[in-house]
Amino acid sequence: MRRIQLPEPPSPTSRSGTPDIFESGVHTFVRRAIVIGNGFAASENQSVGLVRALGLSDKHVLYEKKLVPLPSENGVGAGLLAVLEADVKEIVSFARETYEKEGPLLVVACGRDTISTASSIKRLASENAFVVQIQNPRLHLNRFDMVITPKHDYYPLTPEGQKQVPWFLRSWITPRDPPDCHVVLTMGALHQIDFSSIRSVAASWHDEFAHVPRPLLVVNIGGPTRNCRYGVDLAKQLAASLLSVLASCGSVRISFSERTPQKVSNIIVKELGSNPKVYIWDGQGHNRHMGHLAWADAFVVTADSVSMISEACSTGKPVYVLGAEHCKWKFTEFHKSLREQGVVRPFTGSEDISESWSYPPLTDTADAAKKVHEALAARGWKLKV
User: Fold this and answer.
1) At what angle do helices 41-53 and 364-378 cross, to 10 degrees?
2) Which H or E run includes 264?
3) Is the peptide bond before 215 cis (omega within 30 degrees of 0)?
4) What confidence tens digit (pLDDT) does each residue in 87-127 have?
5) Could you say which architecture CATH assigns to the domain 195-361?
6) How many of the other CB atoms lie within 10 Å of CB of 133?
7) What is the value of pTM for the model shown?
8) 290: Cβ–Cβ under 8 A, 6 or more apart, which residues?
9) Cβ–Cβ < 8 Å for 256, 219
10) Among candidates 47, 199, 270, 128, which has minimal Cα distance to 254?
11) CB 325 within 8 A of CB 244
12) What is the edge-to-edge ordering of all strands in the sheet holding 319-322?
């Protein structure tokens, strides 16, 4: 972790006033963040997104054995360090030993695999750290200073959700209690996309996208999950629908995720790969995901990915979702909420992509960051950015 060089005590005759480091005591300022990752990019994206929204993008993220730089995103440096495995004892000792000189730690963890580590840090270093757990740990929420989770995680507690769960399984797969005062509910997943990052990325991708015929339709294809099952039928439906809207598009750019089955991508490539309006990214070279978010005029996203949908909906641009009818359980609630608020529309193939529509963009990450600021203030701490 970067050491903070304390300034000299202020001179009584100084016109610049008293530096805040002496005014309030250094220990009241949170200057550093530790992210506990579970090895999955989607989970770590949520944690890093929150840290950046808090203004700590130039700080450090700790891993156990060594610190390694996160790869830059399309030429934009991450400014963070990544952790391979978190060691509770090392982090707790670090928090205690550096508290007087460098202030408390902000610990951000995401995913079920991080619950034990994050809760242990809270238990052993509660006076020296503020622990945020992203995604619902289901029970004993007081093990953390704050829990940030989507509203649809509480779908199992609704009357409709209760009907779908046998009583003898409810304690295993549902939250046992409704959200309390330190639970922050979001519409979707946290991420690193906001207007500032979009502007920055748009500039870095200017040469590739500035001359692309418009409107530009970006298609993000995920893959089937336990609660959103689909196969070649959806791929054929998507291909047919895209062919139907091509006349209203200047260009179409298609990306697959690591979860996209080969049989799905093969159909898309076969049906659309030779069309001059269509570009299919093969996964080689720089990841174009951020460039697509910045330069697209509209999106089509498969229903399986809460993360990809959340990112697209944070742009304020039209977002069409394909395959929501294949989803069940709490994902049904997620899609229903977005449609009711006018944030997304189903993709049918009858759309005129040149006709734009708008909605209040999702600001889950910024909203969650504001709640963290408020909770820190309640403890007499504040972020130093």
Assistant:
1) 60
2) helix 262-272
3) yes
4) 899 899 999 999 999 899 999 999 888 999 999 999 999 99
5) 3-Layer(aba) Sandwich (3.40)
6) 28
7) 0.85
8) 73, 74, 76, 193, 197, 201, 205
9) no
10) 270
11) no
12) 278-280, 251-256, 216-221, 298-302, 319-322, 345-346
Tokens matching residue 226: 């336990």
Taking the domain 28-67+80-187+365-383, which CATH number applies?
3.40.50
**What pLDDT score was predicted for residue 85?**
58
Q: How confident is the model at residue 177 (pLDDT cuts 50, 70, 90)?
A: confident
Cα separations in angstroms, 303 against 109, 148, 149, 209, 267: 25, 22, 19, 26, 18
Using pLDDT thresholds of 50, 70 and 90, give the confidence band for residue 57. low
> Tokens at residue 68, please?
């390694």
Residue 103: Cβ within 10 Å count: 22
pLDDT, tens digit, 9 for 90 and up, residues 253-309: 999 999 999 999 999 999 999 999 999 998 888 889 999 999 999 999 999 999 999
DSSP of 50-112: HHHHTT-TTS----SS--EEPPPBTTB----EE-SS--HHHHHHHHHHHHHHH-PEEEEEESG
Domain boundaries along the sequence of the chain? 28-67+80-187+365-383, 195-361
Q: Is the dihedral of CA 221, 222, 224, 227 positive or negative?
A: negative
Decide if 338 contacts 318 (C-beta within 8 A).
no
